[in-house]
Design brief:
alpha/beta; Luciferase, domain 3; 29% helix; globular
């Protein structure tokens, strides 16, 4: 009887020769994937890895990222995905903080790892494995697919070929022991070093089949087809928690993974049609770039296979979201969450049309609590600090950072991502802002995102950013940067209409005292508004910053 890994056994049994993973170098079937993961576990164990050890990966959206993830999830290892944009000092910090015993790196980032491990005081790791894409991919038992090994450069850092590890023979006697492992993601804070998040995903020990149960419990949240099948498109880096979770959970629910390493809008349209992608995960910047694809190219896009487009990770400009829904239909679903809390809320296109600006209802297993600055719970419609609690009892801590863990918890199990918002009378969540963006005018706290949501609902406004500027009397006054809808020019009549709309929906002290019009607003690669580019010129000569 053929031996199979716990997490892939069902799919291998049903359709062993069907495609499990598509990446830039080809396709891998379910049977091939399962076999390679078995050999990878055997190879890493043979080289000294024990249950509870930490494996760092510096890999792109490629099948090896899936293989190492599955190996860790079933062999009891802690997986630490590294952002491949990091420089050597940043990589060294994470490797040391996580106490990585092994590192699996694609050859594209080999030099960064060498520099990180060669730095004075670096802790190092006892096993270094390199994936070489300069030759054809080998199969389990055939190391021809990776030829790079030995010393990297002049640093004396020794790497072993990934293909040689995957070529490790399997034992003929007893079946291997399997144990649950999982990922610890590092998040970038506003200050200091990144923090490793140890939550429900990073628990070690016990049966790995728990992963399958978790994946199926979130099937409806990530919009997977009810009964297996489908194809999940991933065009954002899998070192991010959202992309990793959606990728691996979709795979464990039987979906084919279609991986794009670097986002390219036109190439993504080709991948969707070629591989009949049913589910797609995007961030707002990717949505904007898809909308910028020339109309003639978009006309050639079929897209009939798409059943769901899930987006999150950053606030989405309302104009972008409306345009995506107009193009693809009511299949655009938004979620709110974070590495610390996972998925917290979710809203469909139909719900969003009724409540623009909302990020949806909390999931059934999540409780959201809104509190005032003194920690008292407030009622519907009142803005406060947002805290969340898993009703399943799971929580998180920051690795090696007890003070930071305490700082984000109001009480055990009740934590915050640092966002401000409110729940409406029906329980829908609205994000008002992060506290750093708050405007204080005349001693009153004003939350820009609340005003932005009102502005973008005006007939004349396509996008808006609200921020505080110096005011001699009030400390700060509210200013709005606007992008007008197509065909409109700023005029006294337009300003009067926008002002009247604000006064209809906002208290007077929240209404902007001045406006400025832009062709587009500055945003980061993740789609987040770069308000400092709008705000800083106003404060440059004021002698103060708030």
């Amino acid at each position: 009887m053929m031996m199979m890994t716990p997490l892939l056994a069902e799919a291998v049994g049903k359709h062993p020769t069907a495609v499990a993973v598509v990446d830039a170098r080809g396709t891998t079937t379910w049977s091939e994937l399962d076999t390679r993961v078995q050999h990878l576990v055997a190879g890493l164990r043979a080289r000294g890895l024990s249950e509870g050890d930490t494996v760092a990966v510096l890999l792109g959206n490629q099948v090896e990222m899936v293989e190492v993830s599955l190996a860790c999830m079933q062999a009891g290892w802690l997986l630490v995905p590294l952002n491949w944009h990091l420089v050597a000092d940043e990589v060294r910090y994470v490797l040391d903080d996580a106490r990585a015993c092994a590192i699996v790196v694609d050859h594209r980032w080999q030099d960064v790892v060498v520099s990180a491990l060669s730095a004075p005081g670096a802790a190092g790791a006892r096993l270094l494995v390199i994936v070489d894409h300069t030759s054809d991919r080998g199969t389990a038992g055939d190391p021809a697919g990776d030829s790079t090994g030995g010393t990297a450069g002049d640093a004396g850092v020794e790497f072993e070929s990934y293909a040689e590890v995957v070529a490790t023979p399997l034992a003929d006697d007893d079946p291997p022991e399997w144990s649950r492992g999982g990922p610890m993601f590092y998040t970038s804070g506003t200050t200091g070093h990144p923090k490793g998040v140890r939550g429900a995903l990073a628990q070690l020990g016990g049966p790995p089949e728990i992963w399958t149960l978790m994946a199926h419990s979130l099937r409806s949240v990530i919009d997977l087809p009810d009964e297996g099948g489908g194809a999940q498109g991933i065009c954002g880096p899998m070192y991010h928690s959202a992309q990793w979770v959606i990728s691996m959970f979709a795979l464990m629910c039987g979906a084919t993974l279609v991986l794009q390493h670097r986002f390219d809008a036109e190439d993504l349209l080709d991948l969707i049609d070629e591989h009949r992608v049913t589910n797609l995960h995007l961030v707002p910047t990717q949505m904007s770039r898809l909308l910028q694809v020339p109309e003639q190219r978009r006309d050639r896009f079929d897209g009939s296979s798409l059943e769901s487009v899930l987006h999150g990770a950053a606030p989405c400009p309302p104009s972008v979201k409306r345009s995506m829904i107009e193009w693809l239909g009511p299949i655009v679903t938004e979620y709110y969450g974070g590495t610390e809390g996972g998925f917290i809320s979710r809203i469909t296109a139909a719900e969003w049309a009724e409540r623009p600006g909302s990020v949806g209802m909390p999931l059934e297993v999540i409780e959201i609590v809104v509190v005032d600055p003194l920690g008292a719970v407030v009622g519907p419609g009142i803005v406060g600090d947002l805290y969340f609690r898993s009703l399943l009892g799971s929580s998180f801590e920051y690795h090696n950072a007890e003070e930071k863990t305490r700082a984000v918890h109001l009480e055990p199990g009740l934590a915050t991502l640092g966002d401000i918002g409110y729940l409406d009378d029906d329980g829908y969540l609205f994000l008002s802002d992060r506290r750093i963006d708050m405007v204080v005018s005349g001693g009153v706290n004003i939350y820009p995102a609340e005003i932005e949501a009102v502005l973008v609902a005006a007939d004349e406004v396509a996008d808006a950013a609200v921020f505080g500027i110096p005011d001699q009397e009030m400390g700060e006054s509210v200013r709005a940067a606007l992008v007008l809808r197509a065909g409109l020019d700023w005029s006294d009549e337009v300003e009067a209409a926008v002002t009247a709309h604000c006064r209809e929906h906002l208290a007077g002290y929240k209404c902007p005292r001045g406006f400025e019009v832009h062709t587009q607003l500055p945003r980061s690669e993740a789609g987040k508004l770069l308000k400092r580019l709008l705000r800083d010129p106003w404060w440059a000569s004021s002698g103060r910053s708030i």
